[in-house]
Amino acid sequence: MDISPLAGKPAPQEMLVDLARLEREYYERWPDLDDPEERVSFGTSGHRGSPFHGSFTEAHILAITQAICDYRRAQGTDGPLFMGKDTHALSGPAQRTALEVLAANGVQTIIQEADGVTPTPVVSRAILVYNRGRIRHLADGIVITPSHNPPEDGGFKYNPTNGGPADIDVTHWVQNRANELLRKRNADVKRVTLAAALNGSTTHQQDLIHPYVDDLRNVVDMEAIRAAGLKLAVDPLGGAAVHYWEPINAVYKLDIDVVNPRVDPTFSFMTVDHDGQIRMDCSSPYAMARLVGLKDRYRVAFANDPDSDRHGIVTPGAGLMNPNHYQAGPRRDRQNAGQQQHDRSGREQTRAAAVRGPGRLQMVRTGAFRWFVLLWRRGERRRQFLAA
Fold first, then answer.
1. Active site residue 283
2. Each residue of 344-376: pLDDT tens digit?
3. How is the chain split among helix, strand and coil, in percent rounded to 5?
4. Catalytic pick from 45, 91, 124, 147?
5. Closest among 168, 153, 157 to 81, alpha carbons compared
6. Neighbour order of strands in the sheet with 109-112
7. What is the pTM of this model?
8. Cβ burial 180-195 (10 Å sphere, 16+ → b, else e)
C-alpha cells in the first residue's frame, strides 16, 4: 500500500472541501441512472456517495425516503421514526429533505432538538426502548451519516424495528424502490415544504442526549470507571458524540478530557489518512496522529468516528491499538449468529466495550450488532461477551 507524503500531517488548506459548491451540487445535480455508480446502492445498510460524483444528491434522498415510507407501509410499521444526523456537511441538507417527505407521508418523526446531531447508538437505543413491550405501532429510524468517510461524502441508513442496521432483504427492497422512483424523476414522491414539515404535527423535537446518558448506568458500571481514577481522554473527531461527553462527565462525576471539542464540516483539524484523504477513521494511525501524540498524558484515550459506531483506543504502551487485538465477540453465540457475520464484525472494527458488572447486560457493540439484537429480542439478554 502506497503511503501519501501527507499521511499523519495536518490537512493543508487546499485540501478542504468547498462547502458552498458541495451543497449546490447536492441540490442541483441529477444522477445519471445509466451509470450504476449514480444509482441508489445500499452497502452496509445504507447509501453513500458524494454530489461531486452524482451519487448523493437531493434526488437520491427524496427517492430513498419515499421508498422507506413505502416499506414501512407495506410492513405495517406505523410507530414513530427516530431520525439522527452526524456532523458531515451534507447531513443537515439531507435531514431537511427527508423531513419534507416524511411529513408528506404522515410519518411521526422525532429528531434532536435545536437542529442537533445524534450518534447512531442513540437512535438504536431510542428504537429499542420505545418498542420494549410493544407488538404493534413499532418505531424505526434513519441515521444520516457516511460514517468515517471524507467530508464531501453523505450517507443515509435505515434502522428497522429491531434497532440495528437493516438487513439485505430490507435494503434491497428500499434500494430497488428508490431507483424505480428515480427513473420516474421522483414523480411519485410525496413532499411538503420544509416550513410545513417543521411546523406540522408530525415532526417532534426532543432531547435525545440525556435519556441516553442516564441509561448508560444500566449497561455499564459507571461507578467502577469513576472509582478506578484513571486519567482518560476522548477525541470525538468532530462527530455527533461531541455534545455527549460533558453530560457523561457531569452525571457520573468523571473527568474525561475532551481534547478536541471542535465541530467543523470541513474537518480541517484532522491529520491526513494513509492515502492523502481526510478521513475520520479512528482505526488509522495516520488519522489518529494527534491523539496518538497525547498517549503519554493519559492512561487510556479513545476516539469515535462521526456517527460514533466505531472507536479507536490509544494507550501509552501500544499507541493506537490494533482493533483486532481487542476484538470482542460472544462466547456462545458465534455459531448462532453465524461465523461469517462474526468475522465480518471483526473487519468492521466498531467496538464500544461495556464494563462488566453483576446482573448487567455484558456486551460490545460491533458492526454485526444486527445479529446480536435479534437474539436479545428473543429474550436471550444475559449473554456473556468476552473482550479480547
1. no
2. 333 333 333 333 344 444 444 444 444 455 555
3. 40, 15, 45
4. 147
5. 157
6. 46-49, 154-159, 140-144, 81-85, 109-112, 203-206
7. 0.86
8. ebbeeebeebbbbeee
